[in-house]
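Working notes for the structural subgroup meeting. M.R. asked for a predicted model of this chain before we commit to crystallization trials. I am recording the input and output together here so anyone reviewing the notebook later can reproduce the run.

Input as submitted:
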Amino acid sequence: MTTEAFFDRPDAAALIEEARVAASMPVAVHEYDDVEERALLTGCGSCQVCRSASSTREGAAACDASRATAAQQAFNRNGTVPFVCHLGLSCVVAPLDQVTDVHSVITFGPFCPSEAPEGLDATVAEGLLNVGVEKTVSLNDVARVSANGVPILVDWTVDRIRALRQAFASSEITVDAPGDLDSAPHRPRPEKSRARISGPAPIIVVALAASDRAAARWYLRNALEEAAALPDGTVHARAISLVSQVLEAAEHARLPTTDAWNALKDLVVMHRQLADVAELSRACIRVLGCVLKNVDVQTTAQIAVVFSEVSEGYADGVLLEDVAAKIGTDPTAITHSLQRRFGLNFSELVGKIRIERAKRLLRNSQFGISEIARRVGVSDASNFGRLFRKFEGIAPLNYREQFRRAA
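Returned structure, recorded in token form:
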């Protein structure tokens, strides 16, 4: 399926519209070859200042040139690139795919960074004069949002576009296996590489498989409180990103996610209306509750016991052999099941739970590192530091310091 044909599909167009509503700014997809922009494939939303700039030949050319330069950087880096357009407004561009010598990119913007200094109106007015637009143009319909949050929404949208396109490709080539008459119908799903997901997403998925709503809520709320404590204003975008990560991992774990993906669409549309972390957390857990209500508890009974034992015993040195003996199975069977379904082994599950619990203590208590290590079941501060860096990429003291600076 060509990129143009893909974006002609109603569900692909709906995804772009959801992204526009979530970001509160225009979203567009353009196609390029190695030399120049070929076509606008799809887009939704516009603002008065862009319409005014594009009304002149010079303005349209300057807009295309700004986007093309950023698009080339995005292709070279194979990643998201923020840039400032010829008017001085902010945008973000990211690559979608490459077919031979043809590329496509998605662009979010323009927007006004909430961190930007005053005087942006004068910068835009000068930019308009440079392309032959002399009238004053209001910026009232240009979103004012944190510059840190937009790339997160862009990455989330790119992930969903790629997953949707892979699902379409899989459905186009899938055929019924001979004699497979008893197979239940299922939604086509692309095979995914098992790149490990950082953060609390894997623990939340295990909690969902174990039908432990309270634990799923705790780890989700902990992550959102962490995001809200930082000054970059990205808590809403991070919430959508986290729920999306959880659903991706839940799919790999063979949990039922169709209803949850549909519910996530509603969250994307209304997430900016949620005033605080408590409201946002409740909305996110409602999405994940769509997984919970459809979990087959008989097929996940062993996971439920494992998760319960680890959740209750992580601070007391819970051992794989003891959990296996309680279930009446071999320790390797537990490890293989966790690795196959959730992408982590028993010790990693215990480690992630310890670190998530420790992060809350680092943010909200005055306990020293050695005391926090003891409270989460790690023998000494040195081992705790190594474990923390393994999962978080920074030292515990550095993690704590960033929240003290934010406060």
